[in-house]
């Protein structure tokens, strides 16, 4: 859960997810699992919205 802790401490750490219908969706790669953790920051609070397999051909519908 180190990635979760890093995101909570530094919400701007993630990359912008360009395929989202909603603005502000970010993601970080979870290196051990090769999954992506998607989240948004709303009024200073981090809200996790999806964990998605990084090897899939398409991303989540977030």
Description:
- The chain is mainly beta.
- The chain contains one helix and four strands, in the order αββββ.
- The two termini are 22 Å apart.
- 15% of the residues are buried.
- The mean pLDDT is 88.
How far from one another are the termini? 22 Å
- Helix coverage percent: 10-25%
What is the approximate shape?
flat
Please identify the structural class as seen in this structure.
Answer: mainly beta
Beta-strand content bin: 35-45%
Radius of gyration: 11 Å
Number of helices: 1
Question: How many individual domains?
Answer: 1
Strand order of the largest sheet: 1-2-3-4
Listing every helix as H and every strand as E from the N terminus to the C terminus, the arrangement reads HEEEE
Query: Which sheet architecture does the biggest sheet show?
Result: 4 strands, antiparallel
Low-confidence stretches: none
Q: Work out the number of β strands.
A: 4
What is shown here, in short?
The chain is mainly beta and 62 residues long. It has one helix at residues 2-9; strands at residues 15-16, 26-30, 35-42, 45-53. Strands 1-2-3-4 form a 4-stranded antiparallel sheet, with helices on one face.
């Amino acid at each position: 859960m180190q990635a979760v802790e890093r995101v909570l401490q530094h919400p701007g750490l993630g990359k912008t997810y360009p395929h989202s219908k909603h603005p502000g969706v970010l993601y970080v790669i979870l290196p051990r699992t090769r999954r992506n953790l998607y989240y948004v920051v709303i009024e200073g609070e981090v809200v996790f919205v999806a964990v998605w397999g990084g090897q899939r051909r398409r991303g989540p519908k977030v």
